[in-house]
Amino acid sequence: MKRLHRLVLISYFGPMVLTFFIVLFILIMQFLWKYIDDLVGKGLDIVTLGELLFYFAVSFVPMALPLAILLAALMTFGDMGENFELIALKSSGVSLPRIMLPLIILIILISVGAFFFSNNILPHSNLKSRSLLHDIQKQRPELNIQPGVFYNGIEGFSIKIAEKDPVTNLMRKIFIYDHRAKKGNISVTYADSGYMKITPDEANLIFNLYNGHSYFEMHQDKRNKKQWRGKTYPHRHDKFSEKTIIFDLTGFGLNRSNENLFKSHYSMLNLVGLEHYRDSFTVILDERKELFTRTMLTSNLFKYKNFGKLKRERENIKIDSTKEFRPMEILDELFKVKQENIITQAIAHAKGAKKNVTDAQRSIVWRTKTIKRYEIEWQRKFTLSFACFIFFFIGAPLGAIIRKGGLGTPVVVSVLFFVVYYVISLMGEKFAREMIITPFEGMWASSFILLPVGIFLTYKATTDSVIMNTETYTEIPKRIIRLIRKIIIFNSPGYRVNENPSTDK
Predict the structure, then answer these.
(1) In this model, does residue 335 exceed pLDDT 60?
(2) Are 52 and 58 in contact (CB under 8 A)?
(3) Which residue pairs, CB below 8 angstroms and at least 24 apart, start in 227-235?
(4) In what order do the strands lie in the sheet containing 235-248?
(5) Which one of 8, 155, 299, 325 is most buried, by most CB atoms within 10 A?
(6) Which of these, 481, 419, 479, lies nearest to 450 by C-alpha position?
(7) What is the DSSP pairing of strand 157-164 with strand 171-178?
(8) Residue of 448, 451, 463 lying closest to 393 (CA atoms)
(9) The pTM is what?
């Protein structure tokens, strides 16, 4: 049995490592495709880019590991089934669970390691990757000038463009406001079109402008002001067909920000940190609810405290506590001016109470959703380990049933199951964030749905089921067609004539 276990482990370990790095490479390529605009042209050195890719590769492990386990299990047992190794082992008295035993122990160890990875290493890699990406996005902000939006990334200037051709980089309707004098919009440059480029030494940003105007509001001399009636507005107006403006980019290099600014984010905390922030926000939420209740009772619902004084002003007002309270009867007994004042105050108090309720509702909902985020991340630490376990018990028996190795059928089946798992996980997490369901239900929904699938496939593979054989599903229609043909032939007149020839005579 030791040789058998060694054979199974070697057969599984190679495909798992290979598929893991393949999936990880695909996820890294997807990341580069998504953030290519933020990385290209920033003057990043190989060390910084390698550090960024390494940290993001580590953060992609929770997505790559379950898929690698599923694909490797399908490939391993598919190859063994295709090469009749499983049949030979079963014929010699070795059952499928016994064949899977060393891999089950391996998957348990991987699941335990995945939990410690998710709790200790993943928060650190998320912190490093997100903070580094944030610093890179802030570097060279001149490349973030977008059409229709004022850009203030270059100190002392505000730039706006109407259009930008992504192919030729031609910009149209360019406005450049010079605020270095800190006196408002006293210097404005407008151009119909222009180009933007960076010098080879990456120290300056050059704007080549065409067909425009420059306006500069000059300082008014107070000594000459008395010679004119009213105010004067001296200015300078320059018209140009071509103009070059150079911006200094000194100080726009990669500056690493303090990582403590990101440490409170839920994806960058371990279980202890998540529990700490969740409890802290829960205490703040309870205090906010108590404050809201006290404010409503003391300042909104019982705003008017001088009802006794009002009663003394009109002695003919008598209120019987045993009768129904009718405010209109009380108002009818007052003077018209007093009625208007009371109604105006009541409307103002109602509007104030409504505003307090709306503000409190927003604050309470925001804090509640924040607490849910921490609870969702707390549950995620365990779902990764359980997903590895479930995917193995889907892939191994499914490979034994399909009996197809290689990267063809296993890849299709693996991607199909992983997409189902991923979609259900996203839906559950979204519902949990919107507080439709609890975080436990949302984060464990995909696992609870696929767990019966794994149990069913394991049972079918153990009992040598042929559920993946096409003949199993084509044989039933064939039988139905044969039965229908027999019924038609039996009920046909010719069949009855041939069956009873004597009656015709």
Answers:
(1) yes
(2) no
(3) none
(4) 157-164, 171-178, 187-198, 204-217, 235-248
(5) 8
(6) 419
(7) antiparallel
(8) 451
(9) 0.64
